[in-house]
TrEMBL record:
Species assigned in the record: Yoonia ponticola
Entry-linked Pfam families: DUF1972 (PF09314)
UniProt domain DUF1972: residue ranges: 5-176
Transmembrane segments: 89-108
Keyword Lipid biosynthesis annotated: no
SUPFAM superfamilies tied to this protein: UDP-Glycosyltransferase/glycogen phosphorylase
Protein keywords: Membrane, Transferase, Transmembrane, Transmembrane helix
InterPro entries per record: DUF1972
MF GO annotations: transferase activity
Protein name per UniProt: Glycosyltransferase involved in cell wall biosynthesis
Superkingdom per UniProt: Bacteria
Length: 362
């Protein structure tokens, strides 16, 4: 069996949900007795060294970028290369290049296509006009032409069934890697500047993640907030940073990529504020659930499914401000129990390989 993973920046993973998934699938593949072959397609610009192998998987590189407008071509070119090389199964992560799937079904009917459609990408606020319409069309193509459609959240699965009448496999993300022993030494200087106890927020700084709402809520309290994000990447982020950086109880950090430092920041939190309003099962949420702290999550179907309705939920800054100071140790233990039951990479990777290795064709 020859399998290819398409649609990610590549491995090793760097701070992205699909990249973390791909990396853990590689490790799971390496540990299997009956391995077969596994290839991961990578964006060359993200990996200057460009090794040929990673933990038992073959790496192939494209000069195209895996994100932005080039992601469409990146996915198309790498998918066709996998077909040309004779890969039996294509695991496609995302719908950007779904326009190529009908062609693959025509020229290589025996190839099996398993597609994770991500989090209803076209509904995100950052996409407008032609881009939004293209992503919705791509989603439709992915659902129509894949042998198996994967959703990472029951709410997304229900959306696909209702919208397209198609059955969906639901597989979430693992988060236990976040609490595994990290290699290296944490940044002591950065950690020394953090409060003794704080609520943590960590996300891309985008409107749909309700960043402004979280900051507004804590600005009205004396509760410490540590917020990690890419503040400098947009006018939206720079404006928020300028507006809230002077609050004594709010610490705004740029992205932290070092695993040991990130783990220490998470371990020091007394609660987690999760503002995502789109995207299904968000990796940052399931990762934080493994730390056993209370979760304050934006009130939407995705987050309720992920936390099994056992978290605290907010839809306004005022509600989050009320939740911020509440001690909820039992809820933290409930989050950990849910995470261990549903969101470990052993469970997730086993399901993906079962789908990839199935003998059925449609």
């Amino acid at each position: 069996m020859k399998r290819a993973i398409i649609g990610t920046v590549g491995v090793p993973g760097r701070y992205g949900g699909f990249e973390t998934l791909a990396e853990n699938l590689v490790h799971y593949h390496t540990a299997r007795i009956d391995k077969g072959e596994l290839t991961v397609y990578c964006s060359a610009g993200a990996y200057p060294a460009r090794p040929a192998k990673f933990s038992g998987a073959t790496l192939r590189y494209s000069r195209l970028r895996a994100n932005g407008l080039q992601s469409v071509l990146y996915d198309i070119v790498t998918a066709l290369d996998a077909v040309r090389r004779g890969d039996d199964v294509l695991l496609v992560l995302g719908v950007s290049g779904a326009v190529v799937l009908p062609l693959i079904r025509l020229i290589a009917p025996r190839r099996r296509i398993v597609t994770n459609i991500d989090g209803i990408e076209w509904k995100r606020e950052k996409w407008q006009g032609i881009a939004k319409r293209f992503l919705r069309w791509s989603e439709k193509l992915a659902v129509r032409w894949s042998h198996v459609v994967v959703a990472d959240n029951h709410a997304i699965a229900e959306y696909v069934r209702d919208s397209y009448g198609t059955e969906v496999e639901t597989i979430a993300y693992g988060g236990d890697h976040a609490v595994a022993e990290a290699i290296g030494t944490p940044d002591a200087a950065l950690l020394a500047d953090l409060p003794a106890a704080y609520t943590l927020a960590l996300c891309r700084i985008e409107p749909e993640n309700n960043v402004a709402m979280i900051l507004e809520a804590f600005a009205d309290t004396e509760e410490p907030l540590v917020f990690v994000g890419n503040w400098s990447n947009s006018h939206f982020g720079r404006d928020l940073k300028q507006r809230y950086c002077s609050y004594a109880n709010i610490t705004l950090l740029d992205p932290v990529y070092d695993p040991a430092t990130l783990q220490a920041i998470r371990a020091g939190a007394r609660a987690y504020a999760h503002g995502h309003s789109a995207g299904g099962t968000n990796p940052s949420l399931v990762e934080m659930m493994h730390f056993g702290v209370p979760v304050h999550a934006f009130d939407c179907s995705f987050n309720r499914h992920t936390t099994e309705n056992e978290a605290n939920y907010f839809s306004t800054a005022q509600k989050l401000a009320q939740l911020a100071g509440q001690p909820l140790p039992k809820q933290g233990m409930k989050m950990l129990e849910i995470a261990k039951r549903n969101y470990t990479w052993q469970i997730v990777c086993k399901r993906y390989f079962e789908l990839m290795d199935a003998n059925t064709r449609s």
